[in-house]
Amino acid sequence: MSATELALNGMVAVPVLFALLTGLFRRSEGFAVAIAVLGSLVTLGWSAWVASLSQAGLDGARVDEVWIAAIDVHWSLGVDGISAPLVVMTALIAACCLVSLVRHAPACGSRGNLAVLLLVIEAGCLGCFLAVDMVLFFLFFEVALIPMWFVINSWGDEHDEQGRRRAATRFLIFTVLGSALMVVGFMLVRSIAGTFDIVEIATGRASYDFGSPTALAASILVGLGLAVKTPLWPLHIWLPDAHSKAPTVGSVLLAAVLLKLGAYGLIRFWLPVTDPTWELLVPLVAALSVVAIVYAALACLAQTDLKRLIAYSSVGHMGFVVLGVATFTEGGVQAAVYASVAHGVITGLLFFLAGAIKDRHETPELGQLRVLYGGVPRLSGVFAFAAMASMGLPGLAGFWGEMLAIRSAVEPASALPDTTFTVLAVIAGLGVILTSVYFLTLLRGMLQGTPADPGRDAVVLDVEPLEWVAWSPLVVLTLVLGIMPGVLLSPVGEATRAYFGGL
Questions:
Q1: Could you read off the pLDDT of 119-158 as tens digits, one per residue?
Q2: For the chain, what are the domain ranges?
Q3: pTM of this prediction?
Q4: Nearest to residue 194, comparing CAs of 175, 174, 208?
């Protein structure tokens, strides 16, 4: 086995092996969580190795073995400048989640069992970001999906058992239906191209007839399936409840990693099977992404629950990702990957902070959260930093993805209608303004507002040492990516040119 094969196969195998090891000691919760943390750190180091092997083209760093010969499914994994940042981000977010479990046990359920599920989810997500075979991508997504149902259902809001079960069930129904549509679309792609290998299609080595009705049907089905997972308006309705009822680590993984599976799927598996010269499909996707941006911002202004507000903000941020994809340009793909990583880092941090605020004040209701600067100044300061990054303040990671997506919409692919995309870019710019409005309103009301109960004098703990350990990498990355965007944009651009050729 070559070093590349060891690295790629191990990227999936390491978290699985540590999940099994953690499961063996799950009755001793402290020891089990310690094993899981060790596993996440090993996986993080492994991801750095995998990222170092990435090249502009997938053919240079790839494993390809026949797996299920009867239906021509291959165990086909690869890494390039598009997937490598998402692999490293997934490993980092999972490590931060497991570190946070050391100190903050969920109110219901076993920490050991939860740690096992988090490692399995990590393995499934890493497999998705490395999968080159369409069926393999589908299978890895289901590996990540099912454990997340258990996380929400069993470790969610301890005060609302019925609500968390309902949220978990809605999450499962929507995402499973999306997966069903996606896999049917993949079968149609296979019927045209004769292969499930998306690299063969993207690079033109496999003949693909875009003029056939089957190709249009395949693109619509694959796009719908991935739109549910992203999620794109109006298929987002499962997301706010899932976030509000999930435990903190569940919300972090869901926002930072699982949503990126849909976005990554659009880049890796939808773009190569979609023709921008089709008259309505691509402009419609772009229009829905802009609706998501504006709708989410308006919905955030009406929220009274902190976690639901952050959940709706994710719908808007993912709208920028989809807008970048829909431009069918190299800059659009760069914007989509950059915005995906930035959103994962920033929103993961926001959900960590929202969970910490809820734990300390025993409520996520904004009407009861006031003057946090006075009670928990460090926690409030980090929250203000993350909120400003999420609103797209220049110099922080949230700025570049949104601006690049808008710029790409102003100059879309030549086959797309310029005027339509220019109008969409202007509306998306309005969404940026609305995003600033709801975040500034949140900061003013929650951190600086008048106390709900002036006579109450409760002592609340500020940020604890282990919380600094879990959150600091995300704070640092938010700064680094904001100051040096080229670290991420350059390899993504090279990979995009190699993968799509003349895109």
A1: 999 999 999 999 999 999 999 999 998 899 888 888 877 7
A2: 276-503
A3: 0.90
A4: 208
